[in-house]
Amino acid sequence: MSTQGRKAPLAGLRALVVDDEDDIRLGLSRLVSSLGAEVVGARDGVEALALFDQGGAELVITDLMMPRLSGTELLAAIKRRSSATRVVIVTGYGTIQAAVQCLQAGAEHFLTKPFDNAEVLRLVERIGRQALAQRGPRASEAARLVCEDPAMRRVLELVARAAPSPVPVLIEGESGSGKELVAREVHVRGANPSGEFLAVNCAALPDTLLESELFGHRRGAFTGADRDYDGLFARAKGGTVFLDEVASMSPQFQGKLLRVLQEKVVRPLGSARDIQAEFRLVSASNRDLETLVGEGTFREDLFYRIGVVRVRVPALRERPLDLEPLARHFLARASATCLGASATPPDFSEGAWAAIRAHSWPGNVRELENAIQRAVIVCAGPRIAAHDLGLGEQESGGTAVPLDYEKAKQGAIQRFQREFLQRALEGAGGNVSRAAGQCGLTRAAFQRIMRELGIERESFTPGGGA
Question: Do residues 158 and 307 both lie within one domain?
Fold first, then answer.
């Protein structure tokens, strides 16, 4: 795969290549550099971790079997420091099982030696584009720009009033509704927008790792702690610490967090001394913390401490005017990520818009983004068809709006009709007369159903005859 004659797709990406074999390390470094990434090489995991602590990296490609610190241990250490960093494991045939275990521990992919250069380039470009697309500043910009529904405008108005003050903010809302984007908006509208925004998902880490990630640790505090590590609270230095899924913290850890908020000091694991910490706290929860307080599973004093200002993010079904601008925003971003910045993005067909408006989006904004990214990948022509979105045959999920029997029956009939006609059109290459005949319908009846469901023949064979 040649990169000549096109712009460097990964310009600005920070990458770290780790391998104790010089030729493999240098070869991989040159391949990744050819895509425009800034690449640093390390001979083993210990050296790699030191380089990571100095300058960070959005992509790490590491050998599995190395002296001093293995690829598995390096993966765990990097994920503790930055859950967003993408890690690719390089392995020999004899250690594929271990590489699969790494995938389960958070690795993005693994390469088997000897690897094909074209395969490496394709993989690195895909993962690198995803990393660039999800950089913090872009996410913050998206939160400010994609907001037209009055329900969401009220959220940002509250954020604008609360952000300049250093008080803790609690963001509540369903999973996938965009709570982290709102948290980033609190940060960029706050008193120190140039400071760091440091996020951690409390549900993803057990207490010991969460304590190490937030409070830090000293060398020798536990197995694998081969150097001192400053936690997020100490590293913030006036920036923002974002605790996602705060309801998942154990009662014991809640007590430790309460002390940090009250006294603004942290005690790293393995240390006998407290250190000062200056930060702005923003928390998020997809569960009702007041209910958890009543049940005795969340501390009341901590609830009032983290929720001085409470912001509720509406579900996507509660902000219908945001559907179209969000869909177009995700279409542009997915096209740039999956197809390349110079590619012409597809457009939505009327059938796709009808499907988007009809869906209840129980997975909220995240589900919409995933559906559109899928559509960009599988779309066969210049227009996205309804079936390209891959929306399920039934509205599922506990957050969906309940329907009465007649509405549910009508919805099931329409979903059946849509899938049936789409399959017929696909099989007939977009020829309406042939598709109608195969279904046992007249052409007029077939076209009537197509109009009712917003299905367009051009979505199946652009330029084909009927």
Answer: yes
Residue pair 36/19 in contact by the 8 Å Cβ criterion: no
Question: Do 326 and 423 have their domain in common?
Answer: no
Domain limits for position 351: 318-402
Distance CA 63, CA 92 (A): 9
Residues 6+ apart with CB under 8 A from 155: 182, 311, 312, 313, 314
Residues 200 and 231 in one domain: yes
- Where residue 74 sits, what CATH number does that domain have? 3.40.50.2300
Q: Which residues contact 79 (CB under 8 A, 6 or more apart)?
A: 85, 87, 105, 106
Regarding whether 268 and 143 lie in a shared domain, the answer is: yes
Same domain, 121 and 25: yes
205 with 276, same domain: the answer is yes
Question: Does residue 381 share a domain with residue 416?
Answer: no
pTM exceeds 0.70 for this model: no
Contacts of 178 (CB under 8 A, 6+ apart): 143, 313, 364, 365
Q: Give the contacts of 115 (CB within 8 A, at least 6 positions apart).
A: 90
| 360-365-366-370 Cα dihedral, nearest 10 degrees | 70
CATH of the domain at 354: 1.10.8.60
Q: How far is CA 452 from each of CA 65, 355, 456, rounded to the nearest angstrom?
A: 59, 12, 11
Cα dihedral 359/364/368/373 (nearest 10):
-140
Those residues with Cβ within 8 angstroms of residue 1's Cβ, 6 or more apart along the chain or in another chain: 117, 118, 121, 122
pLDDT tens-place string over residues 429-462: 788 888 888 888 888 888 888 888 778 777 666 4
Residue 337 is assigned to a structural domain of this protein: yes
* 44 & 99 share domain: yes
Asked if residue 4 belongs to a domain, the reply is: no
| Terminal CA-CA length for the chain | 39
Q: What is the pLDDT of residues 210-265, one digit of tens each?
A: 888 899 888 888 777 778 888 899 999 999 999 999 999 999 999 999 999 999 99
* 382 is a domain residue: yes
Residues 6 or more apart whose CB falls under 8 angstroms from that of 297 comprise 251
Q: How many CA atoms lie within 13 A of 269 on its CB side?
A: 23
Q: Which long-range contacts (CB under 8 A, 24 or more apart) does 96-102 make?
A: 98/64, 98/72, 99/64, 101/72, 102/64, 102/71, 102/72, 102/75
The DSSP bridge partners found for residue 90 are 63, 111
Integer angstrom CA distances of residue 23 from 41, 42, 57, 68, 82? 11, 12, 22, 20, 28
